[in-house]
Amino acid sequence: MRCTSICRKTLSENCLLKITNGNFTSEYKDLKSNKTLFGSAIRDFEVTKPGSPGKSSLWAIFGPAKSDFLQVAAGRFLSVPPLSRSYPQLQNDNGHNKIQFLNFRESTGIDKVHLSARYESFSYKGEAEISDDVNSVYNYITGANNYNSNSGHKDPKYVSNLLELLNLGHLSKKWINSLSNGQLRRAKLAKALINKPQLLILDDPFLGLDGDSTKLVSRSLRDISKDLSISVMLGLRVQDDVPEWIEKVAFVTHEDGIKICGTPESVLSSIREQLPAETVHAGKNKNKMTSTEKIHNDELVHPDRVPHIEFKNASVIYRGLPILQDLNWRIPKGTHWRIFGANGTGKTTILSLITADHPQSWRSVLSVDGVLRKTGSGSNFFDINNKIGISSPELHSLVPSNKTFMQVILNGLVKNIGNSNFMFDGSKVPLDDFAKHVLSTFNDEINANANTPFGQLSTTSQKLALFLRSVIKKPELLILDEAFSCIDDPLLLEKCHSFVEKDLRDTTVLQIAHIDWELPKCDYVIHLTGDDQRSYSLHKYVQGQ
Ligand SMILES: Nc1ncnc2c1ncn2[C@@H]1O[C@H](COP(=O)(O)OP(=O)(O)OP(=O)(O)O)[C@@H](O)[C@H]1O
């Protein structure tokens, strides 16, 4: 008996977050109607300080309700009864938030920048300019660009260590808005860690990161947690690899609350047994790039045929720093491509040249259907975008949250507004046969969400709305930039892939993803490499079994 009470005492002394028989809801009025987040109360959940007996300081949360559960852990939503959620050992330190919650799906001010704005600025600051450049990566991370806080004065050794751990040292003087998606995500992570929180909660921490960056961020999280004694909760998808340093795993659903909880091995084998095998086991190997047979640009298009898109000696250089150099790439009509490369290698830059978001798009770097694109050539931004369907993280962050699921989809049919515009002129857009086919194929998903405002949809449904918006006009060119990277419903993912592979077989498709199984099947791959020395190669896409 004595031993148990001592153990309990030690546990509560080490406990950062405790939930006992808690229900959660977004508004008081929902309490009366029993509208709670989870069908059952969360009976017993605990996050301890690192190194505590019982080892539950490093968690991975899976399941359809993982994002809501992480928000509950971060103190969002009302707890009922009020004391069912407590933070016994969280220290109050000068108002600095000791819990840091980072959700890469939610867009912040810096995400809401049109691509064109990013490329209009050719900013690469020299050493001497750093103190004046309020919007440098360094100042963003340390908070020195925020005049309302005194948080700009940080221990320089700690800051440089953090920058090194997250491979941001070489980017620290750049303008924050010029970072690529993956680079920006690493910068956000560094910002979350700058005030040394006690509990770090990250939903989808590896989203949009290339393989090396994923390993780097995973290792950094392990080291940071150890060196600074920070407890960590990660929200992951069932298909994701669980970092080896995770101690405990919970699977959470809206019906049951915490459905399964235990060691990573026990919980994962149990979850994976319950899901259709082809979606998890085989899913992980799906479209795996096993071998890449190099091909030459000239082999791609028959000499008599005009390529759909052709880059000829295209280069993009920022103040002497090349991002693309002498790109020669012929894209035959109706071929499906993967644009593959680590974060910052220029994938989005290529796409923005095609969509004319990049100012250099008009400098004779590419031809479409044999017509060289240059100023005065007769085509304009809207003509170009009428023929393109696109889903991308940049676009995702621009969708007005009050537009419904259905309005966002139908917006894909509105002509002459560009792809990043969500304005409607109010008139009804006629549906052609293909649009009807799209709507009937995804009838169930549409029925479930049609009138829900975009801001209230799950991220999976938001991604689906953007995907359907991109395909509904049967574009001549479809661009899928991380279009499926947040979808955590394996069956829906399969359905979208099959739509691209079969129903859009004749459309030219360019897609970006860092994880093989997030992609529909492709015919070819363009592989971009290099940080200082930029290069590229073209390959046949050889799929694994
Ligand atoms: N306006 C700018 N000034 C300076 N550098 C820029 C500017 N815009 C982009 N860059 C740099 O160009 C490089 C390529 O960026 P791009 O967004 O094309 O990469 P990416 O391959 O799409 O990366 P990710 O996988 O992270 O999305 C990055 O190193 C980025 O920092």
Automatic annotation (TrEMBL):
Residue intervals of the ABC transporter domain: 42-280, 309-542
Keyword tags: ATP-binding, Nucleotide-binding
Chain ranges passing through the membrane: none
Gene3D superfamilies: P-loop containing nucleotide triphosphate hydrolases (3.40.50.300)
GO cellular component, one term: mitochondrion
MF (Gene Ontology): ATP binding; ATP hydrolysis activity
Keyword RNA-binding: no
UniProt-listed Pfam families: ABC_tran
InterPro entries: AAA+_ATPase, ABC_transporter-like_ATP-bd, Molybdenum_import_ModC, P-loop_NTPase
Protein name stated in the entry: Piso0_005014 protein
Annotated source species: Pichia sorbitophila (strain ATCC MYA-4447 / BCRC 22081 / CBS 7064 / NBRC 10061 / NRRL Y-12695)
